[in-house]
Amino acid sequence: MDEAIFGGLLLVLAAATIAPLIVDIIPRVRFPVVIVEILLGIILGPHILDFIHHSTGLEIAKEFGVIFLFFLAGFEIDFEGISGAPLRTAGTTWVGSVVLAIGFAFLLYQLDLSSTMLIAFAIATTALGPLMPIMQDSGLIHTRFGSHVLAIGAVGEFGPVLAIAFLLNETRASFVTALAVMLFLAVVGLLLMAGKRIGNSEHDSRIRRIAIQTLDSSAQFAVRVSVLLLVGLVYLAARFDLDILLGAFASGFIIGQLGDVTSSGQSRHVMEWMKTKFEAIGFGVFIPIFFVMTGVDFRIDLLLDSTRALIILPLGVVASFIIRGVPVLIGYRRFERGMRLRLALVAATQLPLVATLMDEFIADGDIPADVGTAIVGSAIITVAVFPLMALNGLSAPSGDTDDTDDHVVEALPEIPKPA
Fold it and tell me: Cα 394 vs. chain centroid, distance in angstroms?
C-alpha cells in the first residue's frame, strides 16, 4: 500500500518538476506551465501510459492543491486597487455572461446533452488561479491592466462559487442556504475586523510581535496561523454545506488584506515575506499536484471515442469566448480596442471550477461523461491559448508599476521583545 501511494506521488512530483524544464525549452513562447503539467498528467495517467493510478493520498493532495490555488487567488486580491469602477464593471460583465451562459445551458438541455441548468455557472467563470502565476511571471499584476484582470477574475471566480452554494444544494430549503452563507460571510467579516484591529494597533501586541520574529525561524507562527485559518474556513464552509472553495478564497482574502500586520512602514516587507512563503508552499508543492492530477483524471479515451465530444471540444472554446469575452468587449468600451480584446481573452480563460463542477455533474448523472470531458477539454485549451494571445506583445511599462514593489525582501523588520 505504502509503495503504491509513494510510487504514484513520486511520478506526480516528477512530472511537476519536469514541467518548468519543458516550458524553458519552448522558444519565444510564454507557455503556461500548468498546461504542461496537465499534458504530462494525461500522458502518465491510466488512459495512455497507465503509470499513475488513483489513490486516497493523491486525491487528498489534489484537494489541497485546488484549495491552495483559491487561497492564493484570494490573497492576491487588492480590494482597494480593484474597488470602484474596476469591480463594478467586472460585476456588470459577469451578469451579462451569466445570461449568455443560461442560454447556452438551455441549448444543451434541449439537445439532451445536459439535465442541469447549473452548468451555466460552470462556464461563466474566469480562472483567476491559473492566471495569477501567468500574470505574475509577466510582471503585469501590479499594472492598470493587472488591476482589471484581478477584478474580472475575482468576480468570475467568487461569483459562480457563491451562486452554486445557493443553487447546487438540494438537501435543504433555499432560505437555509442563504442563512448559512450569511453566517459564513459574517464569520469572515469578524475575522477580517479582528485581524485589522491587531494590525492597526498602536502598541505591539504579542501576536504581532511573535508573527514577525518567527518569520525567519523554525516557529513560522504567521504561516501556521494562516494555514490554520485556511483549513478552519474550509472546514466551516463544509460544515455549512457550502463549497469548500468559498472558504479557501475567503481565507486568502483575509490574509491578503492584513497589510498592516506591523506598521505602515514595515507591512510591505512582512507581506512580501508571507507571499514568498505561501507561493513556495502552493506553487512549489500542492498546486502542481492538482494540475497533474487534473490531467490524470482527464478521460481522453472518452473524448477520442465520441464524435459529439470532438465536435463540442472546439465549440466549447468558442462558447467560452462568447460567454465571457463578448460582455467584456461591450462593458469596457472606454478602453481602446486592443486592450478590450486582451481583457476579453483573459476573462474567457477557465479551468479549475469547470473541472471540479464537471466531475460533480458527471458523478450525479446530470451530464454525459463524454460531454463533460469535452467541456473540461475546452477549458484546458482556453488556459493554453487565451492568456498567450492576451499577453502577446504586452509588457509592463516602468511607470505603470508600483515603484515600491521590490520583489526582493532585503531584511525583516525588527520588533524588540518587551522588557
Answer: 23
Q: 131: which 3 cell numbers? A: 492566471
Q: Which amino acid is at 139?
A: G
Q: Which residue has the higher pLDDT, 150 or 1?
A: 150
Q: Is 152 exposed, middle or buried (0-12, 13-18, 19+ CB in 10 A)?
A: buried
**Non-local CB neighbours of 106 within 8 Å, separated by 6+ positions:** 117
Q: What is the CATH number of domain 2-206+278-391?
A: 1.20.1530.20
Cell readout for 10 is 513520486
d(CA 211, CA 224): 9
- Look at residues 120, 21, 131, 29 and name the one whose alpha carbon lies nearest to residue 73: 131
Question: Cell 470602484 appears where?
Answer: 84
Give CA–CA dist 361/119, Å, rounded: 8
Using one digit for the tens of pLDDT, what is the confidence trace for 49-72?
A: 999 988 888 999 999 998 998 898
C-alpha cell, 123:
462556464
Q: According to the model, what pLDDT value does residue 295 have?
A: 92
Query: What length is written for the chain?
Result: 419
Q: What are the structural domain ranges in the chain?
A: 2-206+278-391
This prediction has a pTM of 0.85
Identity of the residue numbered 388:
L
How far apart CA 31 and CA 15 sit, in angstroms, is: 16
- Category of 393 on φ-ψ map: left (φ > 0), alpha (ψ -120 to 50) or beta: left
Cell readout for 385 is 491559448
DSSP string, 345-394: HHHT---HHHHHHHHHHHHTTSS-HHHHHHHHHHHHHHHHHHHHHHHTT-
**Nearest-5° angle of CA 167, CA 169, CA 174?**
65
Residue-wise pLDDT tens digits, 238-272:
998 888 888 998 999 899 887 644 444 566 677 77
All residues at 6 or more sequence positions from 162 whose CB lies less than 8 Å from its CB, including other chains: 181, 246
Question: How far apart are the C-alpha atoms of 370 and 312, rounded to whole Å?
Answer: 10
* CA–CA separation, 133 and 33 (whole Å): 9
117 DSSP assignment:
T
Question: With 0-12 CB in 10 A as exposed, 13-18 as middle and 19+ as buried, what is 43?
Answer: middle
Residue 53 C-alpha cell reads as 493510478
Q: Does the pLDDT value for residue 342 go beyond 80?
A: yes
